[in-house]
């Protein structure tokens, strides 16, 4: 795959998606640029969805939304360095209908089909929301000598449903966290926590780690992620398939697929849309523009 | 008890606590005024604690903190009507060491003693944090014809430990939600949700309700709250003691005792202090000054 080496910026990645040159997952593309999950809802659900994000900022960190209902090219940013600072613009040339490599369409709370663009589905009362993605801190992990294994292997991150309930908000009841998983050596977990801590708008530090953590999340089979690729060991075997790899444990972060799950649980009427898990919209803003200095680690 | 009828304002309630005229719980006092939980930590834990609140805004809505380390009379407010508006001042004459009716002192992660003021314990590097309290919306519930039963009975709200994990933040790992419980008729739960929804900085709408909700929270015995008073039926019997009261279910909100539990789990060094559960610091700001219009219910 040669495309990724060319896709060093958010704009290049969005344009490649827009022209359908890029239809694969985006982990590792445009290093240090923020990546975003997309969820698109009928306007009548927008205020409840904002509240869902406000009450569950770790799995659902709201970065931006359509500046007016129906808008897919102008966004109101909610990303601030501090609560009192001005919002940071996210992207100068963006089209929410085309700029993810792949999308899912939901009808009556179920996945109806997978598409490469939303042009024929987007209606005048649709509101698009961008949610932070943990791909945004993978470059920082690599720079700290802790590259996520799936990026080294050019695979998608494994994602899991959990039994950890979201705080409900209006119509959004019964939802649970979705998490992404990256395996690390036990002795590296504290540094992994420190490196990712400052990325508050892209899930921040892990929510759980180790086998105790997996159990508390209610993950029944670590070898079977609901989305993304099965994690492989450095030898290319299925991770955790033959008992524990010595000294390696799963580390779990909040995941921006959570809102799509919440939408399914809520059984909303009408057409709901989102990116396909792992196939993100990449933004212009870079991590050092959005977050405080790197922790001293 | 005649005191409560005199205590119609935040200042009156704080002065009564300050002079030790008031040493009982504060539910129902100073109707429509915001009430706050207190947690006081050595400065070295302050940034991790802020992050804990940011990641867990439903149980830990951060209202304000000491404006400088050691300060107990001047606060920096974090309470805003909207993310971009200016912070709302909380109280003009406040002393965090004296203005709760009762306090707990923690040493080495355990409750060491209960005191009526913190004057002899507060050190130069202590930082005080005020966290929103669900007493703040009880007046709104009463105005909507849904008075919480414990306020009608002049009792403290029952509070429970749960198994619902907090999102960890720095040294704060292993914490779980604490919840307050108010019984309501099943058919009133949606209105109760609507009335409390706008109180985003004082726990907002419930996080769980019904017997399914209690089970998801891991509450083993609804008849035995860890803090506060056992809930009574309208006939004065122990609530839920003899099977279910027909049509009545428990409704659970995030509770500001959560940070004190988180501190105990984290086993922090040094002296940590908090209000005694139910014995809050009452503020000058009123609910209509802090939150959007009452939902149309």
The secondary-structure class of chain A comes to: alpha+beta
On the 0-100 scale, what is the average pLDDT of chain A?
90
End-to-end C-alpha gap of chain A: 34 Å
Count of distinct strands of chain A = 12
Estimated share of beta-strand residues of chain A: 15-25%
Number of domains of chain A: 2
What is the architecture of the largest domain in chain A at the second tier of CATH? 3-Layer(aba) Sandwich
Q: Compute the gyration radius of chain A: what is it? A: 18 Å
So how many helices of chain A? 9
Q: Report helical residue fraction of chain A.
A: 10-25%
Q: Main sheet of chain A?
A: 8 strands, antiparallel
CATH topology call of the largest domain in chain A: PSTPO5379-like
Tell me the series of helices and strands of chain A, N- to C-terminal.
HHEHEEEEEHHEEHEHEHEEH
Principal-axis shape of chain A equals globular
CATH superfamily of the largest domain in chain A: PSTPO5379-like
Largest interface: A-B, 23 and 23 residues
Describe this structure in words.
2 copies of one chain form a homodimer. Chain A has 297 residues and is of the alpha+beta class. Chain A folds into 2 domains: 3-135 and 267-290, PSTPO5379-like, CATH 3.40.1640.10; 137-254, 2-Layer Sandwich (PSTPO5379-like fold), CATH 3.30.2040. In chain A, 21% of the residues lie in helices and 25% in strands. In chain A, the strands form 2 sheets. In chain A, strands 1, 2, 3, 4, 5, 6, 11 and 12 form an 8-stranded antiparallel sheet that branches. In chain A, strands 7-8-10-9 form a 4-stranded antiparallel sheet, sandwiched between helices. The first copy, chain A, is globular and about 55 Å long. The two termini of chain A are 34 Å apart. The mean pLDDT of chain A is 90. The A-B interface holds A 51, 54-55, 57-58, 78, 80, 83, 164-165, 167-170, 197, 200, 204-208, 216, 254 and B 51, 54-55, 57-58, 78, 80, 83, 164-165, 167-170, 197, 200, 204-208, 216, 254.
